[in-house]
Amino acid sequence: MSTPPSYRVRPSRLTASQATPPGSKSITNRALLIAALANGDTVLSGALDAEDTRVMLDALRTLGLDVGFDATKRIARVAGAGGVFPCKNADIYVGNSGTTTRFLTAALAFAEEGVYRLDGKPRMRERPMGDLLDALRSLDRDVSSALNNERPPLEIRGKKDEVCSARTVGIAANVSSQFLSGLLMAAPLLKRELNVEIDGTLASRPYVEMTLDVMRAFGVQVEADEAFRRFSNFHAGEYRGREYAIEPDASAASYFFSLPAILGGEMSIKNLSRDALQGDVRFVDCLERMGCKVVWGADYITVARDADAPLYGIDVDMNEIPDVAQTLGVVALFAESPTTIRNVANMRVKETDRLAALTSELRKLGADVEERPDGLTVDPTVRPLHGASIATYDDHRMAMSFALAGLRLPGVVIENPECVAKTYPSFFDDLERATEPK
User: Fold this and answer.
1) Nearest to 263, CA basis, from 14, 436, 433
2) What pLDDT is stored for residue 159 in this prediction?
3) Per-residue confidence at 1, pLDDT binned at 50, 70, 90?
4) What's residue 191's pLDDT?
5) Cβ-based neighbours of 409, under 8 Å, separated by 6 or more
6) Quick one: pLDDT at residue 403?
7) 140 has catalytic annotation
8) Closest by alpha carbon to 48, among 247, 273, 313?
9) Radius of gyration over every alpha carbon of the chain, rounded to an integer in angstroms
10) Mean pLDDT confidence for 408-437
């Protein structure tokens, strides 16, 4: 459908028992970059067709790589260039894609030669890059921020490997695990010994585990210590092109897993399981604690709740799965007691300050919300809930999460619904297919 300037959600019942979210953005962009760095051709099936992945595809084309995408079949084809970028001077548009910006910055910094400039949307110019830039500079890489604020626009000048003297590099990953993932994926280009050590705490560990899994699938087996703080042996292998299947997006699946929690009924997602690369499948553990029934199949996950069964508030640390914290915040509206979300300070440097945005819009619906520096508490029991016009802050997850509220609360209107194109262009169509207005 053509997405209007605003989208009015209608109170509905759950009518479908299965949904099919698109492919994982996180896996797709990792696989696209690694395929570009590989020797040989790669075919990615189930690849996500959305703004963030198109930004990565266009960036690779700008760098001179042979990349094709069949949107109908969701198949991407990449002719790997073995870590050599054919274009040696390029201006690269990165939109508001953190994965594209951070992953490419590291890979281009290890290019043997070339001058590259990365810039994107105004919000991307606000998102931090300093921890990655500091790590790259410690490896004698020539990377700079045009505005001297450690944010885009960035300029990267590739250097030959022999100028790099360091053998161990430290990197802070408490703000974003994407800094560490970008460095890990690019490190094999050095083709020699390098140790990567985490300075401080690590945010969103499952995303780093995903990075290592995709690297392993393409031929590079990185060694990680038991504490997951030191990584080594990048030089022992090289990326090789292959056929590779992308899982459904577990963050997107969270909206459909939430439907039984909010409306009652049952919902299954195929090709996700406990063995999924994406940590966000653990979102269903939160729903189970709230009173839902969860079945983990070999190649599916099912969530169910009787409409008359109570939904309870929970206290949960979501540091490892912050991308589904907004979803849980909306589900919390329909619980019989408060829900507390903890240890997600890094939500403030995403597509928007997600903690502030979530707090503001939940309050519009009547919830009592206590915002803290690293989390919030949602209490839906203080006053009656009601509809409202929801600002989305050009953040796809705000739009998708708050659409769920409108399935129970009359009068919920989602502003700027087209922002879902970042990761899930067909979201509202799929939501309508899964539900029926009362």
Assistant:
1) 14
2) 77
3) very low
4) 73
5) 11, 333, 365, 385, 386, 387
6) 98
7) no
8) 247
9) 21
10) 98
Looking at residue 390, which CATH number applies to its domain? Answer: 3.65.10.10
Q: Tell how far CA 283 is from the center of its chain.
A: 14
**Residues 420, 294 share a domain:** yes
**361 inside domain:** yes
Share of the chain above pLDDT 70, in %: 97
Q: Which one of the listed residues 323, 379, 395, 430 is annotated catalytic? A: 323
**Overall average pLDDT of the 36-47 stretch:** 98
* Residue 236's pLDDT band (cuts 50, 70, 90): confident
Average pLDDT score over the chain: 95
What range defines the domain where residue 320 resides? 6-21+248-437
> Distance between CA atoms of 27 and 32, rounded to whole angstroms?
8
**Tokens for 157?**
């000048």
Instruction: Give yes or no for residue 176 having a pLDDT over 60.
Output: yes
* Claim to verify: residue 71 and residue 53 sit in the same structural domain: yes
Q: Give the pair of three-digit tokens for residue 434.
A: 């899964």
Q: Same domain for 253 and 200?
A: no
Assess whether 313 and 280 both reside in one domain: yes
pTM of the model: 0.94
**Mean pLDDT of the region 191-216:** 93
- Does residue 414 share a domain with residue 372? yes
Report whether pLDDT(102) > 70: yes
Q: For residue 239, is pLDDT > 80?
A: yes
Span 390-419, pLDDT tens digits: 999 999 999 999 999 999 999 999 999 999
* Pair (156, 224) in one structural domain: yes
Task: Tell me what the mean pLDDT of segment 194-214 comes to.
Answer: 95
In Å, how far from its chain's centre is CA 134?
Answer: 23
